[in-house]
Design a protein that fits this description.
single chain; mainly beta; Porin; 10 strands; 10% helix; rod-shaped
């Protein structure tokens, strides 16, 4: 009897193993089971830069005219009231990216001042000093990132050369001194902002040092 029972057990075990091999493991889902929610992968949004290169032309006027300090001092003479024109500035810059432009900047200054004798009570000057200056500079502007498209803050750095024309003459046109040019090196460093009134025009304000301390003007974008 035990012999037959052992044979029957072996047959049942073999049948169970064979059924598992043919059908694999089965998973039964209890009714009412809800599969866990898997959120979709995040969608990457590509932000396109709509910047277009522009040619920027600006014309401005600065204050004060620092070329007054280039006029020479003479022993026994003092300076009267200064008459000045400028500095008048103009720049042509190519803005090739949202944050940078490069171009050329020029300025024009003119200063005239009378010299009086220290020991004279006469209101007539002994002679007059005149200074006229042109400068041409390489202009580099770095724009700061901003979310306000109506305002473009920037840092201007310009370096170049001066062209001086100075003379000191008395009332009869006689030269009283042979001046030396103050210096050939020209520069301007400014922190400013451009206010865009439209797509093609605006105005700017600057504060810095070099050819001027304060300046303002208009800008055209092409």
């Amino acid at each position: 009897m035990k012999k037959y029972f052992s044979i029957l057990s072996l047959l049942l075990l073999f049948a169970a193993v064979e059924a598992k091999a043919q059908y694999g493991t089965r998973i039964y889902v209890v009714p009412g089971y809800v599969r866990p929610y898997a959120p979709p992968p995040p969608v990457r949004r590509v932000v396109r830069d709509n910047f277009q290169p522009t040619l920027n032309i600006s014309i401005g006027y600065g204050f004060p005219n620092l070329d007054r300090y280039a006029l020479q001092d003479f022993y026994g003479q003092y300076k009267g009231n200064v008459t000045e024109t400028g500095p008048i500035s103009g720049a042509v810059d190519y803005q090739f990216s949202r944050y940078m432009s490069i171009g050329v900047m020029g300025t024009y200054n003119k200063v005239s001042v009378p010299y009086f004798n220290n020991n004279s009570n006469s209101g007539t000057p002994a002679f007059t000093g005149n200074s006229e200056n042109y400068s041409i500079m390489l202009d580099l502007i770095s724009y700061f990132p901003t979310y306000n498209h109506g305002v473009s803050p920037y840092l201007r750095t310009a370096i170049g050369v001066n062209n001086w024309n100075q003379n000191y003459e008395d009332a009869n046109g006689n030269k009283v001194a042979q001046p030396q040019d103050p210096g050939i090196f020209a520069y301007q460093a400014s922190l400013g902002a451009r206010f865009n009134l439209s797509r093609g025009a605006g105005f700017y304000l600057e504060a810095g040092y070099g050819k001027y301390i304060l300046a303002g003007g208009i800008t055209f974008l092409f």
